[in-house]
Write a structure and sequence with these properties.
It is a single chain. A two-stranded antiparallel sheet has the order 1-2. The protein is 55% helix and 3% strand. By secondary structure, the chain is mainly alpha-helical. The radius of gyration is 23 Å and the shape is globular. The chain is built from 14 helices and two strands; from the N terminus they run αααααααββααααααα. It has two domains: 103 residues, DNA polymerase, domain 1, CATH 1.10.150; 182 residues, Orthogonal Bundle (hpI Integrase, Chain A). α6 crosses α11.
Length: 308
């Protein structure tokens, strides 16, 4: 019989090839499962039992975050759930291979507090979108990035992978999202205008839609992805213009994605349509945004109802 380490490798290959998971997801699952296997110190799937998993959950709950100045800060319940989700997926895979082990259904996820969205106001958004107002290549690029993020609700990984053969004569754009799923997003006139202006100013021959503006960054990229901005660079660009716009909150590309969704729902879009535009596989994920719009309705009711 194969060892747990061998089975883990087979599982990772399975989710990448058969299930179409992204390389990043496979890397994360590898990390989570490696920590679990190092903890249980056995190579026999039959040794994965309730008590072992209980001890593992206690151990996880006491692990430091590793990126905080406070020594007493431990892994959040949300992060612990990532480990448990990977373990459950692995156990389900073993069950399908008819390998005796603990049933995945016996592992319950930790309860987490309701997720909150740290949004910025429409006025702050407007200031940020107008922050890159110069005619140099960097400002033209940054303006195109911000407008495209808000127009489409793209994930940062989806934005960075766009190529310069984007069709700006169409209002639609097909993107490949999580799990290799293709969906259609929509381009505003302002986003198309800004991307056109940026591309017109470009002098390089890179296939990437968004590139570094300095030669050193160009050369540091691999040949396969010559000239593509990485996720961290796009996050820095968004942060820089949020600060420049005088926004004290932390703003990321995902913040703009949140704003995209709440703007649609606040203006009457239905939840299923927003789910499709965001590329959520489950509508449960999209429903987080209804809490924001519900609060907006409550505020309106409080302000305008029964004022006699």
């Amino acid at each position: 019989m194969s060892s747990l380490k061998q089975l883990k490798q087979q599982f990772l290959e399975y989710i990448e090839i058969e299930r179409g998971r992204s390389v990043k997801t496979v890397e994360n699952y590898d990390h989570y499962l490696t920590r679990f296997l190092n903890f249980i110190k056995t190579d026999n799937p039959a040794d994965i039992k309730d008590e072992v998993v209980r001890q593992y959950r206690l151990w996880l709950n006491r692990q430091p975050t590793g990126h905080s100045k406070r020594n007493d800060e431990t892994l959040s319940r949300k992060t612990q759930n990532y480990y448990l989700i990977a373990l459950r997926a692995f156990l389900k895979y073993l069950a399908r291979q008819e390998i005796k082990t603990m049933p995945a259904e016996r592992i319950e996820l930790a309860k987490v507090s309701e997720r909150s969205l740290d949004l910025i106001t429409p006025e702050e958004l407007s200031r940020m979108l107008n922050s890159p107002n110069g005619s140099n290549l960097k400002d033209l690029r940054d303006k195109a990035i911000l407008e495209l993020l808000f127009s489409t609700g793209l994930r940062v990984s989806e934005l960075r992978s766009l190529t310069r053969d984007i069709n700006l004569n169409s209002d639609e754009l097909s993107v490949r999202g999580k799990g290799g799923k293709v969906r259609v997003v929509f381009l505003s006139d302002e986003a198309k205008k800004c991307v056109r202006a940026y591309l017109k100013a470009r002098k390089d021959i890179s296939d990437a839609l968004f590139t570094p503006v300095d030669e050193k960054s160009f050369k540091s990229n691999s040949t396969r992805e010559y000239g593509f901005l990485n996720n961290r660079s796009i996050e820095r660009i968004v942060k820089q213009h949020a600060i420049k716009a005088g926004i004290s909150k932390k703003v990321t590309p995902h913040t703009i994605r949140h704003l995209f969704a709440t703007d649609l729902l606040g203006n009457g879009a239905d939840l299923r349509s927003v789910q499709a535009m965001l590329g959520h596989s489950s509508i449960v994920t999209t429903q987080i945004y209804t809490h924001v719009t519900d609060k907006h309705l409550r505020d309106i009711h409080k302000k305008f109802h029964n004022k006699s």
